[in-house]
Amino acid sequence: MSTRELHLNLFIHGRGHHEASWRHPRSTGESLTDLGYYAKLAQVAERGRFDSMFLADHLVLGEHVGNRATAGLEPITALAALAGATTRLGLIGTVSSTYTEPFNLARQFASVDHLSGGRAGWNIVTSWAKEAGANFSRDEELGHDERYVRAHEVMEVVTALWDSWADDAVVDDPVTGTYADVDRIRRVDHVGPHQQVRGPLNIPRPPQGHPVLVQAGSSGPGKDFAARWAEAVFTAHMHVGSAREFYADLKARVRGHGRPESGLLVLPGLSPVLGSTDAEAEQLARELSELSLTSVGLHHLSSRFGGADLSHLELDQRLTPADLPPAEQVEGSRSRAVLIRDFVAAEKPTLRELLDKLAGARGHFTVTGSPERIADVIEEWFTSGAADGFNIMPPLLPAGLEDFVDYVVPLLQRRGLFRHEYAGRTLREHYGLERPDDRWPAR
C-alpha cells in the first residue's frame, strides 16, 4: 500500500440516498427505528474495513415525509447502542452547536467514546433548517454568520470540558480509598457572549482525548471554522475540478492556523450507482429516476434556497442562475445553494434534469457504472488532490453498500489504495490523527 491511505466512511441515510430508494425492490423493508437495521449496515461496513459510519440529524420533520422514507433514530442514542454491535468501526453522529448546550454535548460524546473504546466522532453542524427554532423555544433562527460565532465558542467550551480531567485523574485505589485525584480535575469557569459554563465535566476524559471533530460546512465561515477545529470535513462537489479547488483552499487555511495538512481529512460525498456492468448500472439509475416524485424534488430544491417559491418554473424550461434566488441571501446551507447555482450556470439543465441530478445525492457527486468504473473515479480523485477519501452514500440500502464492499473494496485493495486489515482500534488511529494532549503538566 502507498504511504498515503484512502479513507472510506459510510453515510447511512434512510433506506438509501436516492430520494426514491424506499420504493425500489432492492431497498430494505425494515423499519428506520429498528436498531437491527443499522447494526447490519455497520457490520457490513466493518467487514469492508471502513474507517467509520455516519448518522446525520434533522431537528424538524420535513414536509416530504408523506412521500419519502425518513424520520429515523436520534444519532447519539443509536451510536451508543451500535458501539456494542461493532468492534473497530468509527461512530460519527451529528449534533447541532446551535441548539444543544455544550455541557450536554461534551458528556454525550465522552460517553460514546468510552462505550466504544475510542471510536466516537462529532459532526458539528450549525443547523440551517428554517423551522428548527420553533422546536427550541426560539422565535427567530440565528443568521448564518452568527451561528458560526456561537459555534466557535461552543467548541472552546466543549474541548475545555473534555480536558477538565487529566488522563491520569482516575486513581481507583480501594486500599487508600482514593478513586480520583481531585487535584487533577479542574473547573472550566467559562463566561462568554453565548455560554456560561462552570464545569468540570462529570465524566473522565475520553479515550481519544477528544472524539474526532468532523464538520460539513463549505461556505467561507464554514471553511474558516473547519481550518481551526475540524479533523475531517464532509463536503459536496459535482465535479472533480471544484473538489480540487476546495481541497487546496482548505489545506491552505489549515496551514494558516499552524496545523499540519494531515491533521484534516477532506472526504467528499460519493454516491455510487453500481452494477456488474455499466449498462446494468445505468438501468438501475433509470429505475430510480422513474420512481422519483416531482413534488419531493421541488420541495428539496426550494429548501436549499430558504423555502423560496419555485412554482413558477416549468419542468422543461432551461434554467439559468437568474431563475434561482441569490445564494448570499440564503441563511441555511449557503454552500449547497452556491453549488446548485454553479451547476446551473455550467450545464444549463432543464428543471426536470436538475431535479433528477439532485434526487440521487442532494448535490454530492454521483457516479454510475461497473465496479471498475467506480474504482477508477475514486483513484482519480484520491491521487489528483481532490480527496483524502470519501463519504460513501449508497443510493440503495443495504444492497448498494453490500455491492460496494464485495466488488469495489477488493479492487481498491489490489491497487494498494485501501487497507486489508485495521491497524488500530480507535477512530483517530484509522484516520491517522494525533491524540490531543490533555493540557495538564506531567505528574
Report on this model:
With 443 residues, the chain is an alpha/beta fold. The protein has one domain: TIM Barrel, CATH 3.20.20.30. Helix content is 37%, strand content 14%. Strands 1-2-3-4-9-10-11-13 form an eight-stranded parallel barrel, surrounded by eight helices. Strands 5-6 form a two-stranded antiparallel sheet. It has a two-stranded antiparallel ribbon with strand order 7-8. Helix 3 (102-116) crosses helix 4 and helix 5 crosses helix 6. The longest helix is centred in the middle third of the chain and has 19 residues, at 144-162. The radius of gyration is 22 Å and the shape is globular. The two termini are 40 Å apart. The mean pLDDT is 91.
What is the secondary structure topology, with strand pairs?
Elements: E1 7-12, H1 35-47, E2 52-55, H2 75-82, E3 90-96, H3 102-116, E4 120-125, H4 144-162, E5 170-173, E6 178-180, E7 190-191, E8 196-197, E9 212-215, H5 220-229, E10 232-235, H6 240-256, E11 265-274, H7 278-291, H8 294-304, H9 334-347, H10 351-361, E12 365-369, H11 371-383, E13 389-392, H12 399-414, H13 427-431
Parallel strand pairs: 1-2, 1-13, 2-3, 3-4, 4-9, 9-10, 10-11, 11-12, 11-13
Antiparallel strand pairs: 5-6, 7-8
Helix pairs in contact: 3-4, 4-5, 5-6, 8-10, 11-12
Structural class: alpha/beta
Helix content: 25-40%
Tell me the number of structural domains. 1
- The CATH class assignment is Alpha Beta
State the separation between the terminal residues, measured CA to CA.
Answer: 40 Å
Describe the strand arrangement of the main beta sheet, using strand numbers: 1-2-3-4-9-10-11-13
What fold name goes in the CATH topology slot? TIM Barrel
Strand % is 5-15%
